[in-house]
Specification:
With about 90 residues, the chain is α+β, with helices and mostly antiparallel strands. It is built from two helices and five strands; from the N terminus they run βαββαββ. The chain has a single domain, classed as Alpha-Beta Plaits (2-Layer Sandwich), CATH 3.30.70. Helix 1 packs antiparallel against helix 2. The mean pLDDT is about 95.
């Protein structure tokens, strides 16, 4: 992590569970210099939490949204300071 990194938390809402969303998100995120995780939520949404350069984080979210657009009804992203707590990008259950 460096000083310019941010934390992006995006919630994807729609038919986003059971369609390979997490695996797709992981495949995309691992192509970029970001860390964090993707996780199904009890309400049927998917949570993506990534840390990286601000523009890179935006690109990851855009790429996932573009790839999975047919399943996404809504997405909400919040940004904050990076914590440096992650060392890789993973799927959480």
């Amino acid at each position: 992590m460096n000083d310019s990194w941010v934390r992006h938390e995006t919630i994807f809402v729609g038919r986003v569970q059971g369609v390979g969303f997490r695996a797709t998100a992981q495949n995309i995120a691992r192509r970029y210099p970001v860390v964090g995780f993707v996780q199904n939520q009890p309400d049927g949404s998917v949570r993506l939490l990534i840390e990286g350069d601000p523009e890179t984080c935006r690109q990851v979210v855009y790429h996932i949204a573009d790839q999975m657009e047919e399943f996404i009804a809504e997405r909400k992203t919040e940004s904050s300071d990076a914590t440096g707590e992650f060392v890789s990008f993973d799927i959480r259950t």
